[in-house]
Amino acid sequence: MIKVSNLTKEFLQGQEKTQVLKGVDLNIKEGEFVAIMGPSGSGKSTLLQLLGGLDVPTKGDIQIAHKFLNKMKEKERTIFRRKKLGFVFQNYQLLPTLTVEENIAFPLHADGKLTNEKSKLIHELIHSVGLEGLNRKRANLLSGGQQQRVAIARALVNNPTVLLADEPTGNLDRARAEEILVLLSRFHHEKKQTIVMVTHDIFAAGFADRIILFRDGIIDQVISRKDSDYATYLANFMA
């Protein structure tokens, strides 16, 4: 589903170049749930921005669903992003004065008027994320956990090939965070949704099939749920 080859990203700071990603190679299978972890400045958020087509690499290839994202022009990337990628952010990024239903429907307006089929899908997603009865409630009147549920439904409304989540539980307490992680895990298992999640929380990472640990712009370690030491690694990290 995702193939990253020799991915390099440099930023110019004054007269100096800072290399944030240093030749990263990464493969993510269709239907896989991957968590990316690492200290601040390790390159994990930069990688997610590149995967989302929000920025372009200095060097290297990003292939998603057999399409080279880095070879697209800006308009092509925008269309690809809208049709193939879903985004969930730490701060939700909802439109506060719009209702739950209106926020979820917002990405669909780029492709024209809402059809009966699309309206049905919105109501199915509202049910799927556990927000029945809140269709017409404004986003700014919801709790943090409810707002993140709206954000997840909005990210899924275009049936994205890949769901990208940037610290999706960062603003939530543990109980609300677990609700969101269980929800993402359910979509992963039931819908075979491919999910790439950046997180600083090992509890959140524990829901993923693999944990990819970044350090200094490179992949330092990969831990798979299938590995015999997966549980030990999580326990030691959380200790």
From TrEMBL:
GO terms for molecular function: ATP binding. It comes from the Bacteria. Residues 2-235 form the ABC transporter domain. It holds the Pfam family ABC_tran. Gene3D superfamilies: P-loop containing nucleotide triphosphate hydrolases (3.40.50.300). Keywords: ATP-binding, Nucleotide-binding, Transport. SUPFAM superfamilies: P-loop containing nucleoside triphosphate hydrolases. Signal peptide: none annotated. The keyword ATP-binding applies. Belongs to the ABC transporter superfamily. This is ABC transport system ATP-binding protein. It comes from Bacillus chungangensis.
